[in-house]
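Thread: "does anyone have the structure for this chain?"

Original post by V.I.:
We have the sequence but no experimental structure in hand. Need at least a predicted one for the grant figures.
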Amino acid sequence: MITNINSEDRLVQKTFAEHLEKMLGWENVYAYNNETFGPHGTLGRSSKRDVVLVRDLRAAVERLNRDLPASALDQAVEKLTRIDFARSLLQHNREFYGFIQGGVPVEWRDDAGETRHARARVIDFRNSIGPDGKPNNRFLAVRELKIQGVRVPHYNRRADLVCFVNGLPLVFIELKAVYRNIRAGFDNNLTDYLNEHSIAHAFHHNAFLVVSNGDKARYGSITSKWDHFVEWKRNSEKEKGRVDAEALLDGMLAKERLLDFVENFILFDDSRAGGTRKIVARNQQVLGVNNAVGSVLRQEELKRQFPRGERLVEYRVQRPELPMAADESPRDHAYKAPSSALVTAGDELPLVKRAHPDLGRLGVFWHTQGSGKSYSMAFFAEKVRRVVPGNFTFLMTTDRDDLDDQIWRTFIGCGVTDEKTPRASSGKELQFILRGNHRFVFSLIHKFNQPVKNPYSERDDIIVISDEAHRTQAGKFARNMRLALPNAAFIGFTGTPLFKHDQLTRRIFGDYISRYDF
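Reply from O.Q.:
Generated one for you, tokens below.
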């Protein structure tokens, strides 16, 4: 007999599962007391200890890696299902995430006896449909999945709703009756499940956790405390914010959104005291970063429209009666030409401007202090590298040593860079570094203190990320930077909103591409 409480819980489960199925296109299975086991069973599990649906996983690996031999595919499946009792939940999760995002490393011997290496793809993040016209990824929601512990046998739990992609349990949803406080789902259930002596292996492949009562909903990572579980409020910055469960389902579990989140919005940060933390992006970070990446894609289109020799247009204006001050900001989109000689009042001043006002300007990313700008920068740079063709260099600039150090340590802690990444200690060293081809470069803007007679680099695949962009981007250092990197694109990050009449920052970086305050 089902109690009233259980019937309420099951009503929420059913509502969630039906929304996933009818509105978002997921398959939906109710497993409680209905599941049969074995290769041809309901889910293909051999026992309740299995948390990976190996049948689906194997089918996906074969489908996505048609050029790999069977032995390599076997390796991929084995590596993705291996449990090492000497390793923690977090260690497993970090390794498996690397496999999911970048492919599973496999090797085999070819017919000539040579050892070959490759990475077997597990999820297709780019193409929803394969060459045979069939879906490349299977999205399956399973209600009330019985899971048995592996460290402590006979430790049984029943998961409310588990969302599988290609057999991997990526999303774990804990549901409570609508009249219950959703924190109870975290305190009384998730903390128990995540214990190493419980069913922690069910989270080895987890991307994020969701807690809901059918009305409200929050999400977090396997290392998140309750205070760091957050809401998903909107799916575009133009929408009015909502905090209901439907907003989260539509925003995070629509197929393309989920794959984007899994591939581009998860980090593991070793930079802070207390051990590694798994970072899952907040709603505003996902929206803002995707807007910024869209701006880069538009920049690439502008570069195709305007070949390199046509991007700067020379023109001449009358020299004003009063000489230009050393730190006066450039007017419109113009700056002093590097080769111009000193002229007197009344003479014509040679200037150059961009052929299109948005060339070199990616926009302003304004998110309130405390909203995770350093992580947003990391998400942005990494997604550009993945989805925009090219060999980009990212120059990280700020105006204070402590900010420079914080961003540098965050990027290292998240594995985006390493300690060998160049940090300019002087203007001359910065000039030398920028003539190279580094993936990332860190510098205070004050290092652009050398007179620029010739550009440091004329590459057009340099993206300058300026932190606290409103403070120091209008003086001589900023002008030197633009003369040194005439074909670079600039994006300004700031935690301070631009004033209504602050047209200077907009002229330098472009309009807002993302705005967020609490």
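V.I.: this helps a lot. DSSP finds 14 helices and 19 strands in the chain.
O.Q.: and Residues 374 and 451 are 30 Å apart (CA to CA).
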